[in-house]
Design goal:
Layout (H helix, E strand, L loop, with lengths): L15 H13 L2 H13 L6 E6 L3 H12 L3 E6 L7 H9 L5 E2 L6 H12 L5 E4 L3 H8 L10 E4 L2 H12 L7 E3 L4 H24 L7 E5 L3 H12 L3 E5 L3 H9 L3 E2 L2 H7 L2 E4 L9 H4 L6 E5 L9 H7 E8 L2 E6 L4 E5 L5 H4 L6 H21 L7 E3 L2 H14 L9 H7 L7
Parallel strand pairs: 1-2, 1-4, 2-3, 4-5, 5-6, 6-15, 7-8, 7-10, 8-9, 10-11, 11-14
Antiparallel strand pairs: 12-13, 13-14
The chain binds adenine.
Length: 423
């Protein structure tokens, strides 16, 4: 393929062949996005669109980018987290697929935002965000671009919370489709994806045995549920902390111990935050933790473990293994932080497996198509993914897994729409 893309920023172009193999391997496990790509190649539903994407730069994201491009869009990609970029994948997207990428694993905050701006320089008609940094940058520093944008999509809970806050304050200037809220997204990606990939990150960074450990999960949303379930499966004694009475009740009835973080802090061996809020593990907790405690986060931003407190309490820091930093506290205890407190599944491992991202990114691709078709009818608000898209993705995924299901008989169908029949 002829490479015409000239403006990009990746770590090392020579990594492209390795990245290409990874992208192709992931693609084998993304049957739904494959089908959508074939349809897009035929119908070109995104022709004339420019999509600015701010997503984790992984092999799964690469296959989404290929799909959007096959649909006729011009696409440009930057990272949605400074520590989640797979440099080989970024190189291959540029060199093999002619897709401009602005992302280097480990980039500092200034470069991260410069890369966001470089993607915005493409003057998007659609934004595709994960966590809300692209949209908030457009709304603050690049407001002149707003007129061109038809609508955007958002991948994760944190971004949707931010956009709902913008909507409430009247600050949101174009419609956003909440991809995260699709059932074929959060039931699977947030639960089974985060459940598996977070443990993967912890294991790659530490190689500790999970069996017999006290494993504390902060937050019992879909991500926390998934992590708690999988940690139990590995033989850990799982403790859940929550602020929401309903979720705390659910965790209790799911068989987990529920207690305040202040108590959990004294007994936990491994802590993971999955709340979307800041300072969930803070100084008062660090003060009572056991020597050797492992801390990590799987929420979108690196604010859940209070890093400034850890730095303040420490007299010494050293990198023990890749993605594992020891903080030696003034009283002699050591606390260990994984992946700088950034999302452990992407900083210390490779994120969710392709088979689950297949559904999340099918929602992204079909939501982009929906924006082209219906964007003009939408207000500057946060919208749900249309249920037809959700159902279509579920049906395609089942088909790809060779799972067949029953259909209602006419009699059953009629029964479900009647009200007269009773006891
Ligand atoms: N978020 C979580 N896992 C991911 C992955 N593999 N690719 C892109 N975004 C992700």
């Amino acid at each position: 393929m002829q490479v015409i893309c000239v403006d990009y920023a990746v770590r090392e172009e020579s990594l492209a062949p390795q990245g290409k193999l990874k992208i192709e391997w992931a693609d084998r496990q993304m049957p739904v996005i494959n089908l959508i790509r074939q349809q897009f190649e035929r119908d070109l539903p995104l022709k004339g669109m420019t999509i600015a994407a701010c997503l984790h730069v992984t092999s799964e994201t690469a296959n989404l980018m290929r799909t959007l491009k096959a649909g006729g869009a011009v696409v440009a990609l930057c990272a949605s987290n400074p520590l989640s970029t797979q440099d080989d994948v970024a190189a291959s997207l540029v060199k093999d697929y002619d897709i401009p990428v602005f992302a280097v694993r480990g980039e500092d905050g200034k470069t991260y935002y410069e890369h966001l701006h470089q993607v915005l320089d493409f003057k998007p008609t659609i934004t595709m965000d994960d966590g809300g940094d692209l949209v908030s940058t457009l709304h603050t520093d690049r407001i002149e671009l707003r007129e061109r944008v038809k609508a955007g999509t958002e991948e994760t809970t944190t971004g949707i919370v931010r956009f709902r806050n913008m909507e409430r304050e009247g600050a949101l200037k174009y419609p956003i489709i909440a991809v995260n809220d699709a059932q074929t997204k959060h039931f699977f990606d947030n639960r089974y994806g985060t459940g598996q990939s977070s443990l993967d990150g912890i294991l790659r960074a530490t190689n500790v045995l999970l069996a017999g450990k006290k494993f504390v999960v902060a937050g019992y949303g879909w991500c926390g549920r998934g992590v708690a379930m999988r940690a139990r499966g590995m033989g850990s004694n799982v403790v859940v902390t929550e602020v929401d009475p309903l979720k705390a009740l659910e965790a209790t009835m799911d068989g987990f111990s529920v207690m305040p973080m202040k108590e959990a802090a004294r007994i936990g061996d491994i802590f993971i935050t999955a709340t979307g809020d800041k300072n969930v593990i803070r100084e008062e907790h660090m003060m009572v933790m056991k020597d050797g405690t492992i801390l990590c986060n799987t929420g979108h931003f690196d604010v859940e473990v209070e890093k400034p407190a850890l730095e303040k309490l420490a007299r010494e820091r050293r990198v023990v293994r890749e993605n594992l930093e020891e903080y030696v506290l003034k009283d002699g205890r050591s606390l260990y932080l994984l992946g700088e407190g950034r999302l452990v599944n992407l900083a210390c491992a490779e994120g969710h497996p392709s088979i689950v991202m297949d559904m999340s990114f099918a929602n992204q691709a079909l939501s982009a198509q929906f924006i082209v078709e219906k964007g003009h009818t939408l207000e500057p608000r946060v919208y749900q993914v249309p249920p037809e898209i959700d159902n279509r993705i579920a049906a395609l995924k089942l088909k790809s897994m060779n799972v067949e299901i029953d259909v209602l008989t006419p009699e059953q169908d009629a029964y479900l729409s009647s009200w007269k029949a009773g006891t």
